[in-house]
Design brief:
Layout: H1 3-8, H2 33-60, H3 71-77, H4 81-109, H5 113-140, H6 150-157
InterPro entries: SQR/QFR_C/D, SuccDH_FuR_B_TM-su
Pfam families: Sdh_cyt
GO molecular function: metal ion binding
Length: 159
């Protein structure tokens, strides 16, 4: 094969000037955000592995296993501030970790600036709503519901 044939079939390097980058670094000193986002993904990933596997071990292995997980089990767990904070940290880290990953995907594959803006707006609003609702559920959960039968109250509330 001749050199001219090889040059005709050569592939251009990605982003070699033919395609402009879709987003650029902020030149006003805020250019470290992507580095911190990258670092957050690594640190939160390691912490999430510990949180999730401990969560699974406590819920599925200790005691009666999966057969013990019911309303009363959750009520008993969330009666302890330790498990409330544990589940809260797991919720927040999982949501922020996932949001950062999806944000990166949107930045990489969003063709237009307006499309990226709208997709990220929807992502951020959904993340905010889930974090707020999840936090409220964890800290306002009350197994002693009004209008419950005496047996239910006795079982879950010790009344």
């Amino acid at each position: 094969m001749s050199t001219s044939t090889n040059e005709a079939h050569a592939l251009e390097a990605p982003r070699s000037g033919r395609i402009a980058p879709r987003y650029t670094r902020n030149s006003s000193g805020g250019g470290n955000f992507e580095m911190f986002a990258w670092l957050f993904m690594r640190v939160s990933g390691v912490i999430l592995v510990v949180l999730i596997f401990t969560h699974l071990f406590v819920n599925l292995v200790v005691g009666d296993g999966i057969h013990a997980v019911d309303f009363g089990f959750v009520a008993g767990k969330w009666a302890s501030p330790l498990w409330q904070v544990w589940d809260l940290v797991m919720l927040w880290l999982a949501m922020l970790h996932g949001t950062n990953g999806v944000r990166t995907i949107i930045n990489d594959y969003g063709d237009k600036k307006a499309t990226r803006m709208w997709l990220k707006t929807v992502l951020y609003v959904a993340t905010f709503v889930i974090i707020v609702l999840g936090t409220l559920v964890i800290f306002t959960f009350d197994p002693c519901v009004a209008g419950a039968t005496a047996e239910t109250l006795q079982e879950y509330c010790g009344a």
